[in-house]
Q: What sequence folds into this?
């Protein structure tokens, strides 16, 4: 039993230390330049097309939700006559 644990410990140490390390590119500097440049865009739209689509979808959902709330309040305030 002890041999198996020792072998497992040795195997795990080998795979962890000998595994290939991947270097991720550090894109912080590019993002800082993108968000700090003065191009007249609000900060929530400086990310590009993806940010613009998310913003428009959120605004449409907000307008639709507000309209639906007003509709439901109106139907609750004016019950149908039997």
A:
């Amino acid at each position: 039993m002890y041999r198996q644990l020792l072998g497992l410990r040795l195997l795990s140490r080998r795979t962890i230390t000998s595994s290939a390390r991947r270097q991720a590119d550090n894109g912080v500097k590019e993002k800082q330049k993108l968000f700090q440049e003065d191009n007249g865009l609000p900060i929530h739209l400086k990310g590009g097309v993806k940010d613009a689509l998310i913003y428009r979808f959120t605004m449409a959902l907000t307008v639709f939700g507000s309209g639906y709330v007003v509709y439901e309040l109106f139907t609750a305030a004016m019950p149908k006559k039997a």
